[in-house]
Specification:
Helix content: 25-40%
Structural class: alpha/beta
Order of helices and strands: EHEHEEHEHEEHEHEHE
Largest sheet: 7 strands, parallel
Length: 241
């Protein structure tokens, strides 16, 4: 695990975006996994700005979303598919057939999980995966306690996130919400991983991830075992190291 600390979030975003561009330049047919949220959104914007300033070949690039919210409309602005499409896929001219996502609704989750994994594998596996870090050290929707052996997972979501989604969508309590995600085993199968964390509110999680024991109660701690994982931090997120 390599750790890099930046003086500002803008510097961090540029460093992460540069790794994306470098990967696609060296291998135009790369399979790159993306996460959504306040940490990665600015990284996606920086990538699109770089593309606008100096276009690179994306004609065979494959993107996939790490996770998805289960139980919401696909068109919901907070759905991972919609966020990835709006933040980066449209700008890089990636059609849906080269944007692999988990479904928001399903009557056969296990079958859809298998299809998701098989689709990634059919394109050659994950070349580069971008991750954010949850305050409770979750990766995607791999919440504390998720088994490391899982290729995919269906999980609960943090109460404050569920409350916000219900307010924004009008989905009532009689409809269950959850999270579906590439599992820890799937994450660890990536050839390279870049995780970004920003802000003082992530400092405790960063410390547990990097300096704590590797255990399922701290999902991100498993990254200590990955041979090619880079952690990008701003000064505030690194303040407890």
């Amino acid at each position: 695990m390599e750790t890099k600390i930046f003086n500002s979030t803008a510097e961090l975003d540029r460093a992460a975006a540069s790794e994306f561009v470098k990967q696609v330049t060296l291998k135009p047919s790369s399979v790159i996994g993306l996460s959504t949220g306040r940490t990665t959104g600015p990284i996606h914007q920086t990538i699109t700005t770089m593309y606008e300033q100096c276009p690179f070949d994306t004609s065979s690039l494959v993107l996939f979303a790490l996770d998805e919210i289960a139980g919401v409309p696909k068109e919901y602005s907070g759905a991972c598919y919609t966020m990835i499409r709006n933040e980066i896929a449209d700008s890089l001219h990636i059609p849906d057939e080269r944007l692999i996502t988990l479904p928001v609704k399903s009557e056969h989750w296990e079958k859809d999980f298998d299809s998701f994994v098989e689709s990634i594998a059919s394109h050659g596996g994950i070349d580069l995966l971008f991750l954010g870090l949850g305050t409770n050290c979750h990766l995607g929707f791999n919440q504390p306690g998720t088994e490391f052996s899982k290729m995919t997972a269906y999980s609960w979501m943090m109460p404050e996130l569920e409350e916000r989604i219900r307010e924004e969508t009008g989905i009532t309590d009689d409809t269950s919400l959850g999270g579906v995600t590439l599992g820890i085993r799937g994450i660890m199968n990536s050839r390279r991983i870049i995780l970004a964390a920003k802000g003082a509110e992530k400092a405790e999680a960063v410390k547990k991830m990097i300096q704590g024991p590797v255990c399922e109660e701290v999902p991100a701690s498993v990254l200590q075992l990955h041979p090619f994982c880079t952690i990008l931090l701003d000064k505030e997120a690194a303040s407890l190291l």
